[in-house]
TrEMBL record, chain B:
Keywords: Cell membrane, Membrane, Transmembrane, Transmembrane helix, Transport. The keyword Transmembrane helix applies. This is ABC transporter permease subunit. It comes from Rothia koreensis. The lineage of its organism: Bacteria, Bacillati, Actinomycetota, Actinomycetes, Micrococcales. Belongs to the binding-protein-dependent transport system permease family.
């Protein structure tokens, strides 16, 4: 595992979830499958923690280990002060009322109204009827569905269904919320709406959120930390900004490139070179890059420039991205300009 | 059809005895009530028992909340053992069991016993088939909320499958009416018995047809009610 920040070696009171060498082996088929393979992670209280991986990477199994829907094969897993690994069903049931969960397909009960769905976990936890009614209304207001209490799930849009799912998951005032591919079945606009709501849950209610996803955009827009999973293992873990700006492993680089365009290479580079007669360089842009200062002085050096490709992203309130510039002018002047750029940021020549 | 059987039917139609409706009407009413009684008792007992067995068949499947392969295997074996036996054979084959439990092998008590045995396993299978169609995600969500297994069974599984279950029970109820006709063989009465003994065997087509008509009307009514109820539950 590649650590971007120094790992905390001992259990910390600020940890919400701690996984210590957790492994899950499924033995249903002919050959046992190590869905989660020796994973150690700490998820801090109050964080939005993303776990990203392609389908089959083991992330959905991992999240189900956290609330005990699946049992660990070995290793220990704790949530707050409760040891989940090895716990018996009654203890798990109690622990689960403190852990909310939302799903890709929402998993609402079609036989119950919106209010009935949100009421269900309250009934499970044994709230008295009068308090339940008040709480249901309060939760529906929180997710912006105060007027849809009597609707049935089939009368709602996907985004609304997921908001009901969120209201339901928050019913028992959990300290942890697990979101399993919660936006994968939604269109981009609704995705944004649901992610905004998850952020609100985190900021206003102080609930720790674990987001399982295969979309790096989801990580970029809401997460504080990210773990990249492949073949049941966490191959890279760290601060979202650090992982995006400096991915260490091949899977992390692949995911980052879906959101932040990397330096053009291969076919993309040859195609760019073919279309532009100038010298092509890729420059990294961060909050501290004084790129504008250098670019504004290029004219003095008789060098013109065009921005031909690239993209910027805001990660944890900071800018990060890469831009490909076409530099036009005398060779010596262009060389000097590149030297100037190198003083303020990372510069890479675009080669076919 | 041979010439002989042709002429036989023609003969019976010609030799049609006069039907004394004043005498037949109370008998028909009596037979109708007997049929309703047998079907109702069977549906209540087999309906509840079959639901529980069906629920077990479903929940003991692999990956479900009461996963238990030996129990699931045994339940399947029992259901598959009883279901293929033709009802008329089951009715007489159950004789020793009837003697040991209810003390008789004839009349309505015995008929209802046989109908319950046959229906309970049919209900179990239909219930299982309807429950399999429930989205497992909904059950997973209930587990994630800390719901107990009993609560999941009766507050999630049952309401989620209620619409299709109503249709399944309607289908079965009509099958039970069919069974009740054969109960006449062990002297249980009812419309089937009446149609055979007073109608068919005495060449009285009026009585046969009247009995059939009553059964058709009853079945239509039950099916319409079942459809209406299922539609109301499923809101479509």
């Amino acid at each position: 595992m590649t650590e971007h920040t120094s790992p905390v070696s001992e259990a910390h009171s600020s940890d919400m979830v701690v996984l210590d060498h957790v492994t899950k082996v499924f033995r249903t088929g002919k050959t046992p499958v190590r869905a989660v393979d020796d994973v150690s992670l700490r998820i801090g209280r109050g964080q939005i923690y993303a776990i990203i991986g392609y389908s089959g990477a083991g992330k959905s199994t991992l999240v189900r280990l956290i609330n005990g829907l699946e049992s660990t094969t070995s290793g220990t897993l704790t949530v707050e002060d409760t040891t989940i690994s090895g716990a018996k069903e009654p203890e798990l049931r109690k622990a689960r009322t403190n852990i909310g969960m939302i799903f890709q397909q929402f998993n609402l009960m079609n036989s119950k109204t919106v209010a009935g769905n949100v009421d269900f976990p309250l009934k499970v936890a044994g709230w008295p009827a009068a308090r339940r009614r008040k709480r249901v209304q309060e939760l529906l207001e929180f997710v912006g569905l105060g007027s849809r209490a009597k609707s049935y799930p089939e009368q709602l849009s996907g985004g609304q269904k997921q908001r009901v799912g969120i209201a339901r998951s928050l019913a028992n005032e959990p300290s942890l919320l697990l979101a399993d591919e919660s936006t994968s079945a939604l269109d981009p606009e609704t995705t944004e709406e649901v992610l905004g709501l998850l952020k609100k849950v985190n900021e206003e209610l102080g609930i720790t959120v674990v987001v399982i996803t295969h979309e790096m955009d989801v990580v970029a827009s809401i997460a504080d930390r990210v773990a990249v999973m492949e073949n049941g293992k966490v191959v890279e873990e760290g601060n979202v900004y650090d992982v995006f700006s400096n991915p260490q492993t091949a899977p992390a680089r692949r995911f980052v490139s879906t959101t932040v365009k990397p330096t053009p290479s291969g076919d993309r580079a040859s195609e760019l070179i073919e279309r532009h007669k100038g010298y092509l360089v890729s420059v990294e842009v961060t909050d501290h890059t004084d790129l504008g200062d250098v670019l504004s002085k290029l004219g003095d050096r008789k060098v013109r420039f065009n921005i031909v490709e690239g993209g910027l992203e805001t990660l944890q309130g900071r800018t990060y991205g890469k831009l490909t510039l076409e530099l036009l002018g005398e060779i010596s002047a262009v060389d000097a300009a590149v030297e100037q750029l190198k003083l303020v940021t990372n510069v890479q020549e675009v080669r076919a | 059809m041979t010439l002989n059987s042709h002429s036989l039917i023609a003969a019976t139609l010609e030799a049609k005895p006069k039907t004394d409706w004043a005498e037949v009407r109370p008998e028909l009413l009596q037979a109708t009530l007997e049929t309703i009684q047998m079907v109702a008792i069977t549906m209540v007992i087999a309906g509840i028992g079959g639901f529980l067995i069906g629920l077990l068949l479903y929940t003991t499947r692999r990956g479900n909340i009461l996963q238990n392969r030996p129990l699931n295997f045994v339940l399947n074996l029992v259901v598959n053992f009883v279901r293929p036996i033709p009802f008329i054979i089951l009715l007489v084959a159950l004789g020793p069991v009837m003697l040991a439990t209810i003390g008789t092998t004839i009349e309505m008590k015995a008929a209802v016993f046989g109908m319950v045995v046959a229906a309970v396993f049919a209900v179990a299978r239909i219930v299982e088939q309807n429950l399999v169609s429930i989205d497992p995600g909904v059950i997973e969500a209930a587990r994630a909320m800390g719901a107990s297994k009993a609560r999941i069974m009766f507050s999630v599984i049952l309401p989620e499958a209620l619409g299709p279950l109503v249709l399944g029970y309607t289908f079965l109820l009509i099958g039970v009416v069919d069974m009740s006709a054969m109960a006449g063989y062990i002297g249980a009465g009812g419309l089937g018995d009446y149609a055979l003994s007073k109608g068919y065997q005495r060449f009285n087509w009026d009585i046969t047809m009247a009995s059939v008509l009553i059964i058709i009307v009853m079945v239509q009514f039950v099916q319409l009610f079942g459809n209406w109820l299922a539609r109301k539950i499923m809101r479509r």
